[in-house]
## 1
Amino acid sequence: MPPLRPSETGEPVGATKIAFLLGTFFGMGLMLAILDLWGPGEETDVEHYREVRDLVTTTYVGDVEEADLLEHALEGMLGGLDAYSDYYVSEEVDEIDRDTSGQTIGIGVILRYRDAPQVLFPLSGSPAREAGLRVGDEILAIDGNETAGLESSDLNDLIQGEAGTSVVLRVRGLDGREREHEVERREMPLPSVRRVRLLDDERDVGYIALTSFTNRSVEEFDEAVDRLLADGMRALVLDLRGNQGGVLASAVDIARRFVTEGVLTSTRGRGEPNVERADPEFAWYAELPLVLLVDGSSASASEVLAGALQDHRVAVLVGEPTYGKGVVQTITRYPERRAIAKLTTSYYFTPAERCLQRGTEGHDWGLLPELSVEIDQDARLEVYRYLHGTFEPPQEALPALEAWEQESGEELIVEPPADEQLDAALAIFAGELFREVR
């Protein structure tokens, strides 16, 4: 996964069509089938679609498929509404499912690409590790296909496949010996909680980076907090920088861990408003001192979480103003077409009735941190590289990686970068009161 790069258009870094998915709701739809059944004259706009479609199929200079024309029409219908509504088909649906579920199908290996792909490390409990792949293995062939000169996308296509199937890898280890391994493809977690560690042994300050919100994020978050508490953590820095959102319910449930009573967020559209409230039964970490790191790429569900904690005064926000995405999308599935319609259906509001959507009249968009600390572009890229651009190696892989680093002179283990925003968070816990705008 390459480092995220800030956009010059004002969108959050690394933004894609799926990056702003905020709420996930599933439904069945018959609209597409009905379009095919309606007769002429029964619906003026549908009839006009048929007229234009027939014009294209009978006079356009190239070959066209009617199914493709329908897809393009639907993409235009939803895509023209706003920046977040859209219509997805085929592989795009798989990508949305992967990003919301927090799961993917693969062999569980982190690669780097040189003349041929090389195993940086296999993930803990992965099929790759179980099959015997090692740190530094150079992949020479995949199912008999030589890898030299292939693009990373082509290599990924060769490795990926359906769960339960296998791929045969011919590799050359760091010792120069060639081996062959058959590796089963399985469903693998894509962790949204990363870089869990104690930052300050003297004050027992813990650190968690939450890079997205998936269906697995709450479970991952609870496991990380419990692990840090077992290590003696007495305060927490939660890093939401570059987190562009995800599943709304996960953001609300994490907010419930810190807030004992009151509204956490509300959503309002054409139907009845929906209000999400705190529940003292789940406020397990309500007494834990908390600082949130945010920036201009903290968006959507990140702002739901940060807004709830800020309004209830259970966390201090440090960093830069958040992006300002205050709308919710609803997903409707059309399984017979392997398609998804994602439509903006409501605004969300913080407990203090703030709507964060940029461009909405009558208010400032986004969230302002209590402690403003700006960093330059180079520093930001280093932070994103550390948080989003790499997976952290498992403990069992560290000795081999360190030995490989010493022998090659290359940086293989990404170290935490210099980070003024994180330093400011630690200074708060140290009792150093400053509000310098950098």
## 2
Amino acid sequence: MNLNKKKILILGSDGYVGSVLINYLKKKNICKLIGIDAQWFHKSNSKKKYNNVDRKDIRNFNLRSINFIPETIIYLAAISNDPMGRAFKEVTHQINFKECLRLAKCAKVLGVKKFIFASSCSIYGASGSKMRKESDKLQPITDYAISKVKAEKGLRYVSSNKFKVISLRFATAAGLSPNLRLDLVFNDFVASAVLKNKIELLSNGDAWRPLIHVNDMARAIHWAIKYNSSKNFLPINIGSNSWNFKIIDLAKKISYVIGNIKVMTKSKKTKDKRSYKVDFALFKKLAPNYQPVMNITKSVNDLKNFLNSKKNILYNFRNSEKWSRLANLKYLIKKNYINKKLFWIKNA
């Protein structure tokens, strides 16, 4: 064993992004890892592959309880999209902001050197087609995005020359993961294509959205682990300019890859207020060797091939506890596995 490996704590280690990150870092063999996750959405075999993942709610987690002081903490824990944010506003505020700040303050006291926060490009909100840079005004319009802005503000204040914070403002996640979710626009479109042989938009498709494959998110986090920032607090957009899409154009692109299937809009009058086009030039400048490498064609085909093997259980995927994070939480509450504040009552 390499005793000089970095010690890294991943909070939110077993989710859609975390399960990919764990496998990625293990293959790199660059660090000693420990993971903490509430495991509301535990569908993968990652616990068998990665035995240091503990089921713990971040709200009850004491950083002093682990047997080493990590050099870096990666904060992926979150109520992770807008529908969940609307349904669980208090929990979103608590986990995405309050607990993040609490643990960052504790980490600083304990001597942790770096804190990597998974933020979101959604903090640019309703900004239309103008390319948004890190210095531009933030216009969050959802509880989820607001919680990310509050966390960034708090982390900026906590950061210091001995406690560096990197806030990774990720584009919308996409692609195949060991802990797959289909309540993401890219994944939703591919699932719709596989199940119904057509892509159904829930809006008129005019909104802008940047995307990034989950594999490339792991690469970006790897960069953040290694990067020695001269700034105490570094917010940085993570993605690529070529993956900025109008929703309707994304649907047409996926349609083309799959075989020119029909693209339908349920209502041409329904407009998505969340619209943001993002400039990733800073990431390209600072991380030239960690730029996104996944292309659209491979990303679509990888997910399509996987979902074809699951076609018999894709029915009503937008409202299924297997594929939708919100539906999963509602299912766990209905079965009395968790309470309405999302604390575990009994094992699922």
